[in-house]
Hints:
Number of domains: 2
Number of strands: 0
Number of helices: 14
Distance between the termini: 53 Å
Radius of gyration: 25 Å
Amino acid sequence: MQNEREMFVLHSRTKGMSLRHLIFVVAFAVWVMQAAAQAQNGEVTECDRLAASDIDFQRNSEPVAFKNIDPSLAIPACTKAATESKNSSRISYQLGRSLLAGKKWMEGLKHIRLAAEAGYAAAQLALGDIYESASFGMVQDQKEAELWIEKAAKQNNPKAQFRLGQRLAQANDQTKAFGWYCRSAEEGDADAQASLGIAYLEGKAWIGAPSDPVRASEWLAKAAAQGQRMAQQNLALLQQQTRGKLNARAKGSDKCDEVIKCLESGRVCR
C-alpha cells in the first residue's frame, strides 16, 4: 500500500510538468528504489572484496582464502566499513579475519566473538574451529568448540553441518553424524557428500544398518564431480570392486529423510 500511495503522489505531482522535468522525476524515483534495494541486500564494500570468507554463505563477494588476505589493505578497509556499518555482523567477522591475518590476535578474536554472539553463522563456525584447534593463542576447549559449531549448523551453514557431523562420528554417535552429513550434502558440500557416501557404503546410518553401495556410489560421484579427492579414490575403488556393474534395483530406501525425521522428533534413533 505504501508503494501505491507513493506512486499516486508521484503521478499527481507530474501534472503540468515539462517532459524534461518529468523524465528527471521518473529517473530519480528509479534511482531511489535501486538504492533502497542495494541497501537491503547489503552493499559490496572493499572489506568484502578483501576479506570475505569461504565458510560464509551470507557473503556478498567472492571469498578470499585466509592465507591470501593482505592485512595492510584489509584492516583499514574493514575498519572503515565497520565504522560506517556499526550493526553489520558480516563486516565485524571480516574485520576479525583481517586482524588475525595481521597477527593482531586479541583484537581479531574480539571482533569474531562479537559477530558470533550476534548470531552470525560463519563467525560461530570460525570461533568453534578456533576453540577446537587452539589457534591464535586461544586455549583449547572442545565443549565450547562443539557449542559454537552446533549453533552455526542449526542456522543451516553447510560447512558447520559437516563439521558437526565429523565431531559426532568421532564420538561414535553415527546416527546423528549421518543426519548432519545428510543436511550438509543436500546443500552441496562436497566433503559431506563424500562422508555420506562412505556412511552408506559402510552401513553407518545407524547401528546395524546394511551397506548400500548404490546410494554410496551416487553420493561419492557427486563429491567426485566437485574434485573431492577422497570421493574420487573411493568411487574408483568401489567401481573396481563391483566391476562397474552396480545394480540400481538393489538400492535401498533413502535413509536421509528417515534419520532426519527421527532426530527432529527427539526420539532415540538406532
